[in-house]
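Fig. S4 source data, part A: sequence.
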Amino acid sequence: MPASGRAIEWYQDSRFGMFIHWGLYSILARGEWVMHIDRIEPAEYEKLVPRFNPAGFNAAEWVRLADEAGQKYMVITSRHHDGFSMYDTALNDYKVTRTPWGRDPLAELAEACRKNGRVRLGFYVSLLDWHHPAYRYRKESGLAWSDYIGFLHGQVRELCTKYGEVACIWFDGDWPGNPIYTEFPHFAAGGDFVYAGLYDLIHAAQPDALIINNRHVAPLPGEDVQPFEQDLPGANSSGWNTGEISALPLETCLTINDSWGWSAADLNLKTVPHLIQTLVRAASAGANLLLNVGPTPEGGIFPAHAERLRGIGTWLNKHGESVYGTRKGAFAPSSRIVSTRRGDAHYIHELFHETDRVKIRAAGARPTQAVLLDGTKVGMGWKTDELFLDIPAGKRNSADTVIKLS
């Protein structure tokens, strides 16, 4: 069964969320895949546990930043591929509450979101686990694949019952056909993840929680959103995404730099205009943007990331009606313009300024008025099926000039 209709509508209206990759790997400051890339064995990786003490973590500050950025939900890693649980799970002791810090950040974020009232909380769950003996060391441990499935489903049940209302469960780590499974045995699943039972569990416990599974192929029954990693829907510059676009709500998940987890050397930061344009390009395709931050081991969000988030929020404060609550645009996108729509209102987003006149192919119903969002009138004319828009001098926005057609 799918998520409730009200949940789907909320999700599509929201359009913008915060992704958070945080775990033991932040200590090494080389991204969330460092355990695999550096070939660190579990026993050695476990030595990070007594070093994890993020005294600077403040859940209310994280939620406030998301709110200031205009993000309507956040999705945080409850457990990434390294197998370390960032919450107080009852299913093993490899967890954040066994560190010197001893706190449950998911519980604190759930409370902060509840108090804020505008930002909802969802959870990332890794389907693979480089640490769990029933996933990686069944031969040595004598455990079976069913033991891992019991652990995985049990953790999802915890997340759906311990933290109040859940916005979504976001799965990762099952990538059909990826050659990494044959190249590295610890990536290989031992069998079926029993998705039907897992998805029913979530929808029964949390009818308004959306199920998102980053499998890079067509969605399975029971999934509510089709995600695209580091790409807009239909694009595949990363090499990870299928070109097939389903009828489900869509999502683009994106990094601000090149890394998901904290990487001190990664300063290849996208600019605020670039991120705004990605947000509106996603919205024009009917997709949300889930924009990532990788907090530091001290528990803070990198100032350059926070600066960019607030920059997007400043733009949304003036132009949010062209993003929130909109659906896929009715006008063909180009390198210069994309469009979004809300009911009978259409929003033209001019992302790059080439000439003073904007030309748009506009077959079908013809708008009678064109204005900027501050009410300034925009000159409008027609030639056959081509719409001409003349933006007044000095009124362009450097990131995205929005024209409302009605």
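Fig. S4 source data, part B ends here. The chain has 13 helices and 16 strands.
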